[in-house]
Amino acid sequence: MPITTIDGHHIQVDAEGFMTDPMEWTDDLARTLAAQIGIELTDEHWKAIRFVRHDFADQGETATLRRMSTVGGIPTKTLFALFPQKPAKKLAYVAGLPKPRGCV
Amino acid sequence: MTTTDAAPIVPSFGEPESGRKLAIICSKGNLDMAYPALILANAALGEGVETHLFFTFWGFDMINRKTMGDLKFTMLGNTATHMPQGLGGLPGMTAMATHQLKKAIAALDVPDVPEFLQQIVDSGGHLWACRMSADMQHLGLDDLYEEVEDIISASDFIEKTEGAQLLFI
To answer: What CATH number did the domain enclosing B146 receive?
Structure first.
């Protein structure tokens, strides 16, 4: 498992760059990861991040877009606006979680 | 364990405007044949792919307000159920098979057809109805799911989806 250094943070990641240890994640790191993919975090981003982190701790799996809207109460349209093009993967990355496994 | 001092490892989320497009032609009105298109469209949109669905012939049942929430699944003519074919013809079997399939789909937290279409539209997907099918069934835009953008001809759809990868279901 590679260790990468991003802006002074040393983190364990998989081959693609997704974090493999959710415990290494911090709010400050989230801002750094978001900056890597061109996103500046707003309160709305944080709401989504908090939900997926909480849901992952609960379920052991990263929420899919559908779960983010039905359980997390964040509309699909909003997710696409906050994390353009690939909302589920980008949000998982910033939240320090694996990519969602589910199809829907 | 390896340590890298080089450039940080950051996932590639593709080019913002890759121009990739997907066109899906939905020609079936069976419950089990509706889902492949819906799932693939949803997946493509989640990957930032511009996605267009064209509903034609029996696929119209997926967007007809009267039928879209009531698509059915039958064992008849479907050997993949691995049940005697004669069973499928018994009264009530289609209703039972439909009920079972809907239950299995809901158990995976996959939405029903109308809700799935809404999710696709919310994700930026485009829904188009086939002109000839509308004419054959004497249906207008008012009879169709409200998020259907328009009733268009086959050639209009081909024009709209220039350069797209295409799936016929």
So the answer is: 3.40.1260.10
